[in-house]
Amino acid sequence: MIILKNLYIIWIIIWGFGAILGYYMAYDATFTKMFFFLVILYLFPLLPYFYYLIYKKARKTKNIFVAICCYLLLFVVICCYY
């Protein structure tokens, strides 16, 4: 988890500077497009961690409805990752 944490911090720094400098380098985008783009980029490295947490929860639960919901959420995370 320490490696994932360090990679995430490096990812945020690189893309944060890219977003700040992109404005001054004449990258033509509205604030909402840029904000959405940055949120996706910041959350992208965390998807394997979310996958691990959701999978662990789905394996431990006794309620079938919660398990199905967890597996559907896993499917969404995997689709976002690819």
Which terms summarize this structure?
single chain, mainly alpha, 4 helices, 83% helix
If you had to describe this structure to a student in words, what would you say it looks like?
This protein has one domain. Helix 1 (2-24) runs antiparallel to helix 2 (31-43) and helix 3 packs antiparallel against helix 4 (64-81). The chain has helices at residues 2-24, 31-43, 47-60, 64-81. The model has no long low-confidence stretch (mean pLDDT 72). By secondary structure, the chain is mostly helical. The protein starts with a helix and ends with a helix. It is 83% helix and 0% strand. It is elongated.
Write the layout of secondary structure elements.
Layout: H1 2-24, H2 31-43, H3 47-60, H4 64-81
Residue windows where pLDDT falls under 50 for at least 5 positions: none
Rg (C-alpha, Å): 17 Å
Described by the principal axes of the CA atoms, the overall outline is: elongated
Total individual domains: 1
SSE string: HHHH
* Secondary-structure class: mainly alpha
Beta-strand content:
under 5%
Distance N to C terminus: 22 Å
Number of H/I helices: 4
What can be said about the biggest beta sheet?
none
Average pLDDT = 72
Helical amount: over 70%
- How many distinct beta strands? 0
Give a short synopsis of this structure.
With 82 residues, the chain is an all-alpha fold. The protein has helices at residues 2-24, 31-43, 47-60, 64-81.
